[in-house]
Amino acid sequence: MKSISNTYKVFSKTLIKLKEWVESFAHKPSAGIALFIFSFIESSFFPIPPDALLIILAISYPRRSFYYAMICTIGSVMGAYLGYLIGYLFYDTIGIKIIQFYGVENQINYVLNKYQENGFIAIVTAGFTPIPYKVFTILAGFNKTIDLVTLTVASLIGRAGRFFLVAGLIYFIGPDVKSFIDKYLDKLTLAFMLLLIVGFIVLKYLI
What we know:
mainly alpha, 9 helices, globular, disordered N terminus
């Protein structure tokens, strides 16, 4: 038990340092490029969400909040293709190791079942909420029933919804909203996601 506790502490400290490293790019000339790169790799394997850098950039340059949200969205959707490729071609050698790293290998069948029920909603949900997005992009490629059009459109909705929500809160409320975002972002995204799903259901029965 003690060894598990020590391992967890080391892992937590590593993640904190990694997050601080990501945030350190906020005031560098290459901040926009770094934001794109972190958004790209987070969709397939990187553990730190691009929100960490997005929040600091949006607070530092409020008028460019939505521009940074757009960079995050484009990078993240493009990164989804890499996750898809890993699952499609390299699942047994790379994909499964990434999934195991996040400790969610027991949920593989659950995710695959969600894809069978409604792959579009599953990806939108994963893209918008704190669920590790890379797990869904990798399994989308492994599943092979999710086409790239579905992956692209669903990722755009989910990722844009999340990043533009963060940018909008900072743009309209100001820097003081950072602590609020840190504390309630997960709840806000889940609430917005529920409204989005309800909207899809209503449209399904109206059209």
